[in-house]
Amino acid sequence: MSTSQQPDPRDRPARLTVGVVGAGRVGPALAASLQLAGHRPVAVSGVSDASRRRAAQLLPDVPLVPPAEVLERADLVLLTVPDDTLPGLVEGLAETGAVRPGQLLVHTSGRYGAKVLDPALRVGALPLALHPAMTFTGTPVDVQRLAGCSFGVTAPEELRLAAEALVIEMGGEPEWLAEEMRPLYHAALALGANHLVTLVAQSMELLREAGVAAPDRMLGPLLGAALDNALRSGDAALTGPVARGDAGTVAAHVAELRKHAPQTVAGYLAMARATADRALAHGLLKPELAEDLLGVLATGTNGAEGDAR
User: With a cut of 70, which residues of the chain have pLDDT below it?
Assistant: First the structure.
C-alpha cells in the first residue's frame, strides 16, 4: 500500500474557503468578488454596527465570528483593517496560534508590503499584499468597480503567480511593486484620490456660495474632461490663469476666497504654487509673466489686483 504525501499548499485546489477579518468597506467587497469567481466565503469578523450591516449586505448568510475563528475556518484570509492596526493584529494572530501552516494571508494595506506579515510567515502562512487602487463605498457597487481596477501586488517571488491569479479572479489588473516602494506608491494614490475629493467638495461649496444651483452638474463635464486630458497628456493639459500667468486674476481669486471661504486660501495657494512650478518647468508659463504671479502666491495678498482691470 502506498503512503500518501501531504500536498504542497501551493498546489491546493483552485476553489478556496474565504474569511474576512475586519468588515470595513474593502473586505466584504473583495470577498463578494471572490465568491463570484467560485470561492466560498465562510466567516467574517466585524465589531461596529456599520461593519455588521456591510457584511450582511455583501455576504448574506456568512456567519459573524471572532477573528481567530475566521482563521480557523478559512483557507484564504483577508486582513482588511486600518494600516495602523495591521502589524499588531498579525503579531497577535501568530502568537496565539490562530495562523495555520499553508494558510493564505492577504492584507489590503497600500502602505505595507509583505514583510508586515512576517510573524505569520514564520509559523507557515503564505503572505500576500494586494491593495486595490480604488475608493470604496461599502455597498454592492464596489464589486462592480473592481472590474479593471489596478491592484498593487507584493509577495514572495514563489507566490507571485498565486497573488496575480487572485487579483485577476476579482476582475482586477495586477501591478507588481517592490517592498520598499509601497509607501511611495501609497502616497501617490493618496495625493491623487484623497485630495481630489477635498478639492471637488470645496469647489462645489464655492459654486453654491456663488449662486450655482447645481454645482455637481456644472463640474461633472469640466472635471471629467480635465481628468481625461491629464491622464492622456500630463502637464501639457495644464490650463487656467496660473498656467497662463494671469497674476491679476489669481490675486482676485485670493481676495474672494479670503472674503467668502478663508479656510480654502491655504490650499488654493499651495496648489497654485505647485501648478506654477510645473507650468514653468514644461514651458507653459512664460518666465516674464511668472514673476508677478509668484509674487502674488508668495505673499497671498492682493498686491497684483490692479493688474486685473
Answer: 1-14, 301-309
